[in-house]
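Please check this one:

***
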Amino acid sequence: MKKLKNILNDNKIIVVIIVLVIAWFYWFQLRPASIRSSCMKISRENTALLGTTDSFEQLEWSKKIEVQNETMEKAYQRCLHDKGLK
């Protein structure tokens, strides 16, 4: 334990740099990827709920696809904005 403390005290700059690199990697790589993944899941769930409405069921197939795509894109963009990516 004493050796570890001595190593950390002797190499403070290296330890700070390593911590900053790890924090940078999390903030700019892992966090956005996780947010995008969860937003995609949320937008799919919102679009699936759309398919259960009566007004949606009465549309023709081509219009349904268009409405689903628009709904999914808007839900995805809104989620990204809410979570601070856009």
User: Anything to note?
Assistant: The CA atoms of residues 35 and 84 lie 9 Å apart.
